[in-house]
C-alpha cells in the first residue's frame, strides 16, 4: 500500500472564494483567481508567501498586523494584502525595499513585547512569529525600557528590582487540554475570530484597548474552563504562537510527521492529522482538506484520545467457565479455541440458530462486514444486528419506504445553501458539534431555524443564533406535530404541486392529501396532545414551505419512539410536499450517532438484509454471496437485538459474539438485558475495556482502537473516509484480524491480509460500493456512496433526477399515542440524550480528562416539578419507572417543560437505562428511549439495584494474576 | 418473549397498516411479519393464536393465516 500523500496543506492566508475568474500580476507572475479573493491568497496560489501574522485561511481577514503590506501599481500607500481584493489587471509587488523595511519595523515592534526564550519555548519550530521574524530578516530590537521608566511589557513577571509587573498575567491552565499563556500573546485576535467564525461560540473577546488589549475568555474573573468555551480547539489551531497550545505538545514536543485518519466518535466523521513524534502520538489536529469538517473539530475528536493508553485497557485475552468466576488471562489460541468450541457446542445442542453476533458501529466497515459474514457464512444463520437497531433503524425503514433508500440525502456542505432549517429531535451542538458549527455559521448569515424538541436546546437561543420558532412538544407526539405541519402546508395550498406531479406517486398523494386535510390533524386540534401553540406551528410550517431551500435535520428524538418509523415517513412527506429534495440546501438528513453507524448498516449488519440493504429473502442476492462464500445463506430473517435477549430468556438463544458495543449499558430496560445475558452460555465480548456487558461474558477478546488499525468509516453523509494505522495495536491485533481468527477457529479458512481486500469483496458484492477501493480513497481523500459506474466519483446529493425507488411515496401517518402513559404513580415523562463532552456509554470519554465537564449524569427537572417534590439543586433523587429505579443528582432548569425530566446515559453507576422500558418502534423494534413515565422523589442514597449492580460488577471484574 | 410483549408488538404493526389506504392490510401485516420477524417469533405468534390469541388485533389474526 503506498503512503497517502498529504495534499497542499499551506495556509493560504484568507478563505477561498467562489466567483468569476480575475487575472492579475503578482511579482511578475500572472495568476487567475475567483473574484473576491484577497491579494494575499492570490499570491499564495502563485506560490508567493506574503509575510503575515493576523491572517489565516480559517477566518476572514482582519488587517491588524500590518505585516502583509504590498504595493499595487497605480494605488497609493501600502495596503494590507489580506483585506485587499483582487482586481482585473492589478499589478502587485510583494517584496520591494520599502516593503521589507516596513515589515522589519513592524516585526521589531512585535518582538519588543515578546520574550526571547525561543529555544525553550513549547512552540519552538511551530511558531509563526518566529518564522516571520526570520522571513523579514529581523536582526535587532532597538526598543528598550526608558531610564527610570516603567517596564512596559507583558512578558516579564517582575522587573530587575523585583517589582511585580502589573501588565503580566499568569498562565491559565484550567482547561485540561490546552494552556493560555498571556505573556506570549501578540493580540492578533485569530483565536477570538476562530471562536466566532469557525466554532460559533463567541466565548473569547479582546478586552481593553491599545497596549492593554488582552485575550479574555468570558468576563473578568473567568478562566477558560469557567467560561463558555467548549474546548473545540479552534483557537488553539488558529494561534500563531505558544499562547494557546496543547498541553501534550508542551509535555512531549512538536511532531515530526503526521498520518491523516478519521475520528472514531460521532457520525460527523471528521478527518484529523494524527501528529507523531517518534512513536508517540503528540496531537490530533483537524485536517483542513477533510470534507466532513473542513479543518474544524470538537473536544472529543481533538483531545479525547487518551483512552487508548488508559490503565483500564485490557490487552490480553481472558476466559472463564462461569460468569461468577474471576477472569483468567490466556493465550489467543486458548481463548479462541475455547470460544469456538463453546459456540459450536451450543449449536450442536440447541440448534444452528442458537447463537449470533452484534456488529460494532464503532469499528470499521471492513470489520463489520466480517462480523456479519461470520454469522451468515460460519454460524449459518442471520442472527446479526448492530446498535443502529437502537438508534436509526426507523430511518432505514421510513426512508426506505418513501424514497427507496435509507440514505441521508445531502452532504454537510449542503447546509451552506439552506434558507430554512428544521432541527427535530436532535441536539447538534452537543451530539454533532462540528456540523452544528457549520449550521450556526449559515444561521448567522441569515437562514431561519425551526427547532422541534421538548427541551430548549442550545440552538434555540445562543450567541447570534435564535430560532424563529421553537415547538416544545410533549415527548411522544412527533407524529402529531409533523402531521399538523403537513396539514397546514396542504390545506393552505403551500405545496409544490409540480414536484409532486413529476416526482411522486400521484395516486398515493391523493390519498395522503385527503387524509392529512382532515381537521383532526390541524394544529388547533392536536394542541391538547402536543402542547404546541397552534399559531407557532402554523407559522413554522409556512416558513418551511415558503422559504426556498428548506432542509430537515433529525436525530434520535425522532427515531427512538413507538412511532419512530412513522415520524421518519412524516418527515419525508414534508420534504416531498414542498419539493425540498434533490438539490443543494434541502433534503432529509438523519444525524447519525456513532462514527460508523451508517457503515454498519450499509455492511449488512441487520438480520434481514445482506450488505447494500438487500433482503435475505431474495434468492438472487443470496446467490451472489453463496457463490463467493461457498455456503448456503438462510433465507429467513434473523433475530434483532431485543429479540435475541427475549430468545435468551426463553432458552433458545445461547451464545453471542459482541464486538465494540456495550448493550448492558446502552440498551433499554437494563434488568431485561442482564437477564438475557445471564441466560446465555457463551458471551464473547470484544472490546477495549471490561465494559458492563463483560460482567456477563465468558470470553474477553481485547480490541484495538481506531489509532491502531486500517480501514474505513462511513459518516452520516455516506462519506467513506479512510482510517489509518498510527500506532501498532497494543493488544496485538486489529479487530478484523481477531474476527478472522475466531472464524478460522470455527473452521472458516479466511485469509485476508489487509482490510483493502475486504473492501474489494464488499465492492464485488454490493452495487452501491462497486466503485470503491483504497486506491480511489487515496486519490480522492473520501467518496460518498453510491459509487459505481454511474457515479464513479460518488454521490454528494441523492434523488437529483428521480427517487431511488422511482416515484416518491406519500405514506399516511396516523398518530398513535404511545402506551407509555403518565398516571398517578409515574406522573412525569423522562427523555434522555447526551452532552458534548461525553460519547455514548462513555467508555472512551470517561477515560479521558473530558470528565471535568461531566463527571456524573444529572437529572434536569423544571423548578415547578422540583418544588412540589421538595427537591433543590444538587439533591440526590430517586428516579423510578415501571421498569426500575436509580438515584442521581438533580439540577433545576427551565430548559425542560414542566412535566418533563431529562438525563444523559454516559455513566454506568447511574444507569439511566434501568428506567427505560421495553416499548419499541412498531416497525423495527428500535427502543422507545425518549419516553418513559417516571416519578422523582428525594433519596438518601443508591437504589437497591445500584448496590446489587455495583457488587456484581466488582465480582465479575476480578482478574486472576497471570500464572508464572 | 412474554406473550404480553408479543401481543403489543403485533398489535402495533396492525395499527399502522390499518391506517393505510387500500384493502390489502392483512397482506401488508403478513409481509411485514415475514420480512422482519424471525421464524421463532412467528412460531410463537401462531401457537398463541392456536391457543386463543387473547388480546390480538383481528388484523393480526387474519394476517397470521398467511404466514404459514
Brief write-up:
Helix content of chain A is about 30%, strand content about 15%. Chain A has about 950 residues and is an alpha/beta fold. In chain A, the strands form ten sheets. Chain A has a seven-stranded mixed beta sheet. Chain A has a six-stranded mixed beta barrel with strand order 31-35-32-34-33-36. A five-stranded parallel beta sheet of chain A has the order 20-17-16-21-22.
Oligomer: heterodimer
How many domains is the backbone of chain B divided into? 1
Taking the sheet with the most strands of chain B, its summary is: none
Largest interface, chains and sizes:
A-B, 35 and 21 residues
Average pLDDT value of chain A?
93
CATH architecture of the largest domain in chain A: 3-Layer(aba) Sandwich
CATH class of the largest domain in chain A: Alpha Beta
Rg over CA atoms of chain A = 29 Å
The percent range for strand residues of chain B is: under 5%
**Structural class by secondary-structure content of chain B:** mainly alpha
Q: How many individual β-strands of chain A? A: 36
Q: Which range best describes the helical content of chain B: under 10%, 10-25%, 25-40%, 40-55%, 55-70% or over 70%?
A: 55-70%
Overall morphology of chain A: globular
Terminal Cα span of chain A: 41 Å
Return residue spans of chain A where pLDDT drops below 50 for at least 5 consecutive residues.
none
**Major sheet: arrangement of strands of chain A:** 13-12-27-26-25-14-15
Q: Which term fits the overall shape of chain B?
A: globular
How many distinct folded domains of chain A?
5
Distance between the termini of chain B: 20 Å
Index terms:
heterodimer, A: 964 residues, alpha/beta, Ubiquitin-like (UB roll), Alpha-Beta Plaits, Rossmann fold, seven-stranded mixed beta sheet, six-stranded mixed barrel, 29 helices, 29% helix, globular, B: 68 residues, mainly alpha, 0% strand
Topology:
The complex is a heterodimer of chains A (964) and B (68).
Chain A: E1 21-26, E2 29-34, H1 39-45, E3 71-72, E4 91-93, H2 97-112, H3 128-136, E5 178-180, H4 190-199, E6 204-207, E7 214-217, H5 234-238, E8 244-246, H6 247-252, E9 257-262, E10 271-277, E11 280-286, H7 299-303, E12 318-319, E13 328-329, H8 332-350, E14 355-359, H9 365-379, E15 384-386, H10 393-402, E16 420-424, H11 428-431, H12 433-444, E17 448-452, E18 461-462, E19 465-466, E20 469-471, H13 478-491, H14 497-503, H15 506-517, H16 523-530, H17 534-546, E21 550-554, H18 556-559, H19 564-577, E22 587-590, H20 597-602, E23 609-610, E24 614-615, H21 619-629, H22 641-650, E25 655-659, H23 663-666, H24 670-678, E26 682-687, E27 699-702, E28 711-714, E29 719-723, H25 735-745, H26 755-765, H27 774-780, E30 782-784, E31 828-833, E32 858-861, H28 863-868, E33 876-880, E34 885-892, E35 900-904, E36 932-938, H29 944-956
Parallel strand pairs in A: 1-4, 14-15, 14-25, 16-17, 16-21, 17-20, 21-22, 25-26, 26-27, 31-35, 32-34
Antiparallel strand pairs in A: 1-2, 3-4, 5-8, 6-7, 9-10, 10-11, 12-13, 12-27, 18-19, 23-24, 28-29, 29-30, 31-36, 32-35, 33-34, 33-36
Helix pairs in contact in A: 2-3, 8-25, 9-25, 9-26, 10-19, 13-16, 13-17, 13-19, 16-17, 22-24
Chain B: H1 3-18, H2 25-36, H3 39-50, H4 58-64
Helix pairs in contact in B: 1-2, 2-4
